[in-house]
Amino acid sequence: MRDKKVWSNFDNTAFFIKVFCEAFGNSKAYFCSKALSVNLSGVREWTDLYPLVEIVRLPEALDYYRSKGLNFFKYVYTKNYSMRNFFNFFFKILINGDKAGISYISFTNHFLKNLIYPYSWLSIIFFVIRKSKLLIKKLI
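RESULT FIELD:
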């Protein structure tokens, strides 16, 4: 917590995940398929950091959940899914530099360790398919 820059580490980005995990770790929970409340106000100052959040901070949250007892198979399944935009978002972070939070990335922890998940590699194909569909829509 010594680093006071916003989004610079997991603790000052997603502290609430640690609080919720400790507070509700042994509680029964359920999923509600429809949103009960969505409260938005003002400008989203973190939009440039969205790729960092999706491919770095969310997988870190899964790592934390795993350290607190998340089932191994659920962990692997969910972590793999979280890599569905891995290469294109990593590329965006590289291109945009500090604006996208490149200084917050550890090449070993956030890049190399995630290459074992199939979706990290399939993210290239997913990206090409999405862009192809958009191009086809524009042409039609």
